[in-house]
Amino acid sequence: RHQLDRDASMADEQAFIDVSNTSCSELAESFVRRCREELVGTFEWQRARLLANAADAAAVGHQASWLQLSLATLVIVSVLYNHGRWMGWVALTLTLMLVQMLYVAWQMLMIAIDVGCYTWLKYISFTFYLCESAQRWASGGSIYRRYRLRRRLQRATSFPEYRTAAEELDELDGKDAWRAAANGYAASGVAGAFR
C-alpha cells in the first residue's frame, strides 16, 4: 500500500508542467494524457485495494470460528434482504410515478383534443354563418329594402299589411313564405290587436 501511495505522489510531482513555454495544443494534449493516466491509475489502484481486502478477508475467515462466520452470514443475509425490500419499494414508487405521468400525459392529450375540436367547430360555425349571411344577402337585395320592410312591420295597422311585409321579409331571408291559415295562429286576437 505504501508503495502505491509513493508512486502516486511521484506521479504528481512529474505531472507539473511549465506553462510559460507551452502552446495551447501542447497544454490540451498533456491535459488529456494526464487525465487518461489518472483514470487508468485510479482503476488499477482500486483493483489492487480490492484484491488486498479480499486476501485479508480470506485470511481472517480461515482464523474465525464457526460462530463468527454464522453471525457474519446472518448479517449479510439481513442486509441483502432489507436492501432488496428497499429496492422493491423504490421500484414500486418509480412504477407508480411513471404510470401517473402517463395518465397525466393522456389527460393532457384528451384536453388538447377537446380544445382543438371546440375551436374547429367554432370556426366552422362562424364560416357557415358568414356563408349563409352572404347567400341571403346575394339572393335577398339591399339593406335599405330590409330596413323598409321592418319599418312596415312595426307600423302595420292591419293584419293583411303585417302579413304581406312579413312574407316579403321572409323571402328576402331565404325562408319559406308563411302559408299557414291565419286561424291556426289565433287570427282573431292578432286582428283585434291591429284594429
Describe the structure concisely for a colleague.
This protein is 83% helix and 0% strand.
Uncertain runs are none
Q: Report the count of strand segments.
A: 0
Helices and strands: which structural class? mainly alpha
Number of helices in the DSSP assignment:
6
Q: Give average pLDDT, whole number.
A: 76
Tally of individual domains: 3
Strand portion:
under 5%
Shape annotation: elongated
Query: What is the helix fraction of residues, given as a range?
Result: over 70%
Rg, nearest Å: 47 Å
Distance between the termini: 123 Å
Largest sheet descriptor: none
The H-and-E topology, N to C, reads as: HHHHHH
Describe this protein's structure.
By secondary structure, the protein is an all-alpha fold. The chain contains six helices and no strands. The model has no long low-confidence stretch (mean pLDDT 76). The protein has three domains: 1-63; 65-140; 141-193, no CATH class. The termini are far apart. Helix 4 runs antiparallel to helix 5. It has helices at residues 2-14, 24-63, 66-140, 143-155, 159-172, 187-193. The longest helix has 75 residues, at 66-140. Residues 145-181 form the Triacylglycerol lipase N-terminal domain. GO terms for molecular function: triacylglycerol lipase activity. This is Triacylglycerol lipase N-terminal domain-containing protein. Keywords: Membrane, Transmembrane, Transmembrane helix.
Give the topology:
Elements: H1 2-14, H2 24-63, H3 66-140, H4 143-155, H5 159-172, H6 187-193
Protein name: Triacylglycerol lipase N-terminal domain-containing protein
InterPro entries: Triacylglycerol_lipase_N
GO molecular function, one term: triacylglycerol lipase activity
